[in-house]
Amino acid sequence: MSKKSGPTYGIDAAPLPALLGAAGLAAAVGGVRRRSARLGLVSAALLSMTGIYLHTTLRGKFRVWERELDRLGLRGDEQLLDMGCGRGAVLIAAAQHLPSGRAVGIDLWTVDQSGNSPQATLANAAKAGVADRVEVRTGDLSSLPFADQSFDVVTAAAAIHNLRSPGLRLRAVDEAMRVLRPGGQLLIADPWPFNRRYASHLGQGTVHRLGPSYWYGVPLLAVTSLHVTKAN
Ligand SMILES: C[S@@+](CC[C@H](N)C(=O)[O-])C[C@H]1O[C@@H](n2cnc3c(N)ncnc32)[C@H](O)[C@@H]1O
Q1: Structural domain boundaries of the chain?
Q2: Residue 160 to residue 178: CA distance in whole angstroms
Q3: Which residue minimizes the CA distance to atom 13 of ligand 1?
């Protein structure tokens, strides 16, 4: 009997860990050839960063999002939008929290995640058993094709910081607030300098560290959460 494969979610910004890993291996080879302890240390640092990055993208972020979705205290019938859903890591975890709700993902399917496509996301939703309550749309985060106040919850995982300019990133945050119902919750996971900027733009929200399980290699790229409840 053939074993069914589960969902596969790709690697976030895959060229980055590939470069880090290649530089680490080159430093290791150079260190051995030249008998250089300094190159050995550089190699160890680069390879550790690569390992931390891969752990985050393949395992750590999933555990963190399970915890953060639990903390939202969802009833299970909410309408949720996941901005920059990629292959569905958060979208599908959210759908699993919404037995009688709906999880909509929107993305432009860029190379920010390997193997990114709406087909890959829908195939993952089917493998996870939540295809009946997952929908994907193609669109830009800075101009969401949804009516005002149409979602109870909006999430965005490592997505908004990818927009090209500070102005576009703030516009995406404003769009998230626009489509959120009064009393609805917004949860953005992004490296800390970005989330602090979004919170100061909105004039509200709490920013929390999410820990080393959500470090893209180095503490400078440590992901935080920004949680906002829209006023009634
Ligand atoms: C690093 S991936 C994260 C994907 C997913 N949220 C996760 O955590 O696995 C960033 C995602 O943001 C999407 N993205 C980047 N800029 C975008 C934009 N302007 N509009 C829509 N999606 C965008 C990319 O296509 C990619 O799928």
Answers
A1: 75-229
A2: 15
A3: 84
85 in ligand 1 pocket by Cβ < 6 Å?
yes
Please name the residues in contact with 27: beta carbons below 8 A apart, sequence gap of 6 or more. 39, 40, 42, 43, 46
Q: 136 has which bridge partners? A: 105
- According to CATH, the superfamily of the domain at 75-229 is Vaccinia Virus protein VP39 (3.40.50.150)
Distance, CA 160 to ligand 1 centroid (Å)? 7
> What spacing in Å lies between the alpha carbon of 23 and ligand 1's midpoint?
26
User: How many angstroms separate the alpha carbon of residue 57 from the centre of ligand 1?
Assistant: 13
**pLDDT digit string (tens) for 67-110?**
999 999 999 999 999 999 999 999 999 999 999 999 999 999 99
Category of 116 on φ-ψ map: left (φ > 0), alpha (ψ -120 to 50) or beta: beta
